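> tool_call: predict_assembly(chains=four)
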Amino acid sequence: MAGTTSRELLVATARTYLDEHGLEGLTLREIARRAGVSHGAPLRHFDSLAALCSVVATEAFEGLYGAVADAMAAAGDEPRTRLQAAGHAYVRFAVANSGPYSLMFRPDRCDPSDADLQAAGQAAFAQLLFAVSEAQGAGWHPADHTADLAAVVWSGVHGVAGLAILGVLDRTVAVNGGDADLTHLLDLTQRLLDLPQPSPTPFGGEP
Amino acid sequence: MAGTTSRELLVATARTYLDEHGLEGLTLREIARRAGVSHGAPLRHFDSLAALCSVVATEAFEGLYGAVADAMAAAGDEPRTRLQAAGHAYVRFAVANSGPYSLMFRPDRCDPSDADLQAAGQAAFAQLLFAVSEAQGAGWHPADHTADLAAVVWSGVHGVAGLAILGVLDRTVAVNGGDADLTHLLDLTQRLLDLPQPSPTPFGGEP
DNA sequence: ACTACGAGGTTGACACTGTCTACATCTTGG
DNA sequence: CCAAGATGTAGACAGTGTCAACCTCGTAGT
């Protein structure tokens, strides 16, 4: 890649490692090794491993935001359909980027006080808040308690994503007669939440 | 405590540490230090730190199972009320035992192939499965796809618990006008899922 | 043109970790 | 009484994050 500072190279190396191996073994020295520099070099650009991870997590939040925004834009004008599309995009992003997504919710690996990270997280929640309030405006549930309603929706998609990434849906649900298919589970969730059924969009592949 | 083998003492020490400090810094050597033994002693009882953590996680699954069972028993006979109580008990347990609860879903800290741990997890899911099927029998949603419905319910409570433990509900939701009160959020979830509203049971305190 | 400086990289230390091995001790069954 | 197993100890090893000392440039200022 052109114009890549070595700082950006380190972040990219970490992200690549996450994509290939997940959180486990993501180590300052391993990143340095893969970037072809000495073990101390990354500390010239980041205060700590957690600071580097925070940058990766921040970029992941931004990627999530973009993926959700794209999905909502593609879903058209009907607010409930847009909210439904946002939920699908959220889970799709989380599963397709499980390494960075996990990092986003691991304050022991990131620095939770990182200002950029906090801002990116707030922006993502604000996006959800807007989608929910839009849907409320179109008659989806009572119009008050928007933040709480958003929290419930967030919990739902976050829970599905987390269990899916853990592999526990395949391992536990499918064994008991469920199909554990993510699209199917999300559709079921959204039927329960009184959201419209989606047009048939196949799963997988990252935006 | 009487009749406590040193193996049990190590597990109890780990659990106490988790209650006090959470996952961070939970280390074989720290457990040994607190138990007053040399750093190598725990390995006489457990193959690895992950094996010790698996025992703690297994016991946590059993505690969760018991808490949910108690709550369902106390909720009476109406299946939907029982399912509602199960959801509350789940989140209450997770928040009151956030250290062990986190461990339950951290395959990097436990040994996911541990047979006891797997069995305890399966038992907990079977319990939920039963509660959902009971509620379906009482007319709650269509009677098919029980496992998928259970997965959705699980995702919901797991998501709420996870975000609450992270503190992100206080930090992100409350700032945007939500009250982020767990009981309130759960009630909202359950209203959305068409479950009965609970009798007013105050939050907090572990069973 | 020369110099001072700062950004970035290297190397070697330090304390800490999990795990292994060799050794000591204590208990218990034959 | 003694042999064997269970349990605990001490030391080592490789790995980690982080720090400090050193080096090496390119560049800005004079």
